[in-house]
Amino acid sequence: MTAVPVGPPRRLIELTVDDRTVRLPEGSTLLQACAAAGVETPTLCYLENLAPVNVCRVCMVEVDGSRVLVPACSRPAEPGMTIHTESARVRLARKVVLEFLASSVDVSLAPQAAGYLERYGAEPGRFGTPAPPAAAGVRGGAAPGEHEASDGLAAATVAQPVSLDNELYVRDYSRCILCYKCVEACGVDAQNTFAIAVAGRGFDARISTEFDVPLPDSACVYCGNCIGVCPTGALMFKSEYDMRQTGTWDEEEQAVTDTICPYCGVGCTLSLHVQGNRIVKVTSPLDNDVTRGHLCIKGRFGWESVQSRDPTGA
């Protein structure tokens, strides 16, 4: 019998979160410590199946003895730490970050962000008129004062049309908060295709392909894992986008059923989102040991064949 290697057990450490003592394995993050204490910590750039990049700064917490606030999603927990998640300093920091985000991009399709804005009393209007939704249509030239985008890539501006360059998914970068989730999913955390990355700096930062080539000419394999991790609707199924345009998209009327992908022997779990007896999109559970939320092009987009049958049964 072959022995299965097992790592050494991790010792438990003890720390305090909002006056509650918690014990958790060494190497855990402050976000995990907060969860163990029953504290809901807001996050936008964090996801369980991706490496934390701590760029959204919404999960900041206060640590006794630390000069600055720290990102809970990536800061390792240490024995004896005292964490404050709702201090005046923390709440102000989260409020201002959310106001900056909501005043510069369209977060209307980000339910988490909407809840956080209300929770912290954020007022994006303090920093100017809220970002308008992007106009539908294929991307063209940039308006006066905007950065020009090359062949459908994101420009560093909020008022830009939706990129419609394929039949699988659309890109609406007026909703992009540069959370890096799509970049991580396209990289070592999932697909290892490295088709996209963050280009530019400061206000010119944007999601881009290598050498700014059009997406269909890039290394993209259309796995759609970037859609699965996007928190704001900047990346969306073409089917969902079309239904939203016609006003027929209704998540309350959708049933979600798990099944196994039939295209190969890996056994990925598919979550079929069905509305009006038609599949409208496919996702995968984050807690599934096989997929961890990720799929290939066949699993994520190959469901159209189910609906190509003659409705008369002929």
Walk me through the structure:
This protein has 314 residues and is α+β, with helices and mostly antiparallel strands. The chain has seven helices and twelve strands. 18% of the residues lie in helices and 17% in strands. The protein has a five-stranded mixed beta sheet, sandwiched between helices. Strands 10-11-12 form a three-stranded antiparallel beta sheet. A two-stranded antiparallel sheet has the order 6-9.
> Which stretches are low in confidence, meaning pLDDT under 50 for 5 or more residues running?
134-157
Number of helices: 7
What integer is the average pLDDT?
84
What global shape is seen?
A: globular
CATH fold title of the largest domain: Ubiquitin-like (UB roll)
The number of E-state strands comes to 12
Q: So, CATH architecture of the largest domain?
A: Roll
Number of domain modules: 3
Radius of gyration: 21 Å
Q: Distance between termini? A: 55 Å
For the largest beta-sheet, the strand count, sense and barrel status come to: 5 strands, mixed
